[in-house]
Specification:
The chain is α/β, with parallel strands linked by helices. It has a single domain, classed as Aldolase class I (TIM Barrel). The strands form three sheets. Strands 9-1-10-11 form a four-stranded mixed beta sheet, covered by helices on one side. A four-stranded parallel beta sheet has the order 2-3-4-5. Strand 3, helix 6 and strand 4 form a beta-alpha-beta unit. Bound molecules: ligand V47. Ligand V47 binds next to strand 6, strand 7 and helix 14. The site of ligand V47 has 23 residues, from strand 6, strand 7 and helix 14.
Length: 365
């Protein structure tokens, strides 16, 4: 195998991976620029198996998007709508509780809840959402509100981010999903989401959460106008942040879906780029315990293959995915746990149903 990797021009990276040495930004760039996907995958799989063995995780979760009304209106997003739009919606707390109630007969362990930056819902609404969900399903873990939303909630609450997080935690917040990171580079934010929280501030919110004992995830929206260098800078910024506070659980590369967005002239990502983003993330983010292949965005088949290219998690049953489907995703909006188990087994991995914090619920040997 060494000969094959050397022939691909990746011998020095293999040396570092075998020695457990950190890769440089230049190494990351070299990987993105290399065409030998099998060699890149082999390297990523070494790290993946060192960290997670043969395990491949999934979760029984339910997504709820309480409102799509958003003042940021990012160019890559088909979900966020102006308040006056005919497609704008907002759920009452009672409606969200009903959504949870409707699935009480399913073994859901996590509610994943995000929305837009709503111009006028009060802070109390968000606290009522958390408390309401806990009333209906007390045991469920609520993973909610991106770092962008948390910064907005701090403004609404007229409190520091630390204090806001403490109040949300008290109301039932269990952890924070990875959305809103996009690409940290100011150039990309300027061109695609100029009203959004800056990359630096996104990281500050995540680190504040870690200091409060709240785990968070991180994402990168790839496959639009970002350069490979900007992808690497994004990964390096996350790695640095993780060195400092250690509270990131998983990294999820998000494949850009152009339909119904202001960037609809761009193409969908390719399978090779999807796999490279998983593999390079696994190799660069040596301090992230998990890399997720989000089947909603890259399709269940590609997510299955990704389990041999660095990913150790397929995310979950999801139920009612909205954000990617508004942008033209052709995957289903939900997937059965039986299908996830079958896909994982066929990939030669051991399916592990996990809780949000990667506690083992059931191992399907
Ligand atoms: O924040 C928006 C992205 C994110 C598009 O933490 C788009 O485990 C692709 O963050 N094409 C929301 N992506 C989804 C998300 C997520 C999903 C699953 C698991 C986790 C986790 C997090 O989707 C947004 C934005 O970055 N997004 N528009 C689009 N057109």
């Amino acid at each position: 195998m060494r000969k094959f990797i050397e022939q691909a021009g990746l011998g020095s990276i293999l040396d570092k991976v075998e020695a457990g040495e950190r890769l440089s930004g230049a190494d990351g760039l070299q990987l993105f620029q290399n065409d030998n996907i099998l060699a890149i995958g082999y390297l990523a799989n070494l790290v993946r198996e060192r960290l997670n063995g043969n395990k491949a995780y999934f979760i029984y979760n339910q997504h709820i998007n309480y409102s799509n009304i958003c003042t940021n209106l990012c160019k890559f997003c088909a979900f966020g709508k102006d308040k006056e739009s005919a497609l704008a919606y907002e759920m009452s707390v009672a409606e969200v509780k009903d959504k949870v109630r409707q699935r009480l007969d399913e073994p859901i362990t996590e509610i994943h809840m995000v929305g837009g930056i709503h111009p006028d819902l009060p802070f109390s609404y968000y606290l009522d959402l958390l408390r309401g969900i806990k009333e209906v399903r007390p045991e469920v873990h609520i993973q909610a509100f991106t770092c962008v939303e948390i910064a907005h909630l701090a403004t609404l609450a007229d409190q520091s981010v630390d204090e806001t997080l403490a109040i949300l935690k008290e109301a039932g917040l269990g952890s924070i999903p990875g959305g809103g990171a996009e690409v940290f580079a100011p150039r990309i934010r300027q061109l695609t989401c100029e009203r959004k929280l800056t990359g630096q501030d996104w990281i500050k919110v995540a680190q504040a959460a870690h200091r409060q004992g709240l785990y968070t995830n991180a994402t990168m929206l790839y496959g639009h106008i970002e350069t490979l260098e900007e992808r690497i800078e994004h990964l390096e910024a996350l790695r640095q942040a993780q060195d400092e506070t250690g509270g990131f659980l998983a990294f999820i590369p998000l494949a850009f879906h152009p339909k119904n967005t202001e960037m609809s002239s761009l193409s969908r990502t390719s399978g090779i780029d999807d796999l490279k983003n998983i593999a390079v993330a696994r190799l660069m983010l040596d301090n992230f315990p998990h890399i997720k292949a989000y089947w909603v965005m890259i399709g269940p088949k590609m997510a299955q293959v990704a389990l041999s290219f660095g990913a150790d998690d397929m995310d979950g049953t999801v139920k009612e995915e909205v954000i990617t489907h508004m942008a033209g995703a052709d995957t289903d909006q939900a997937i059965g746990s039986d299908t996830l188990i079958r896909l994982i087994k066929e990939a030669g991995r051991t399916p592990i149903e996990r809780g949000t914090l990667y506690d083992v619920i059931e191992s399907h040997n």
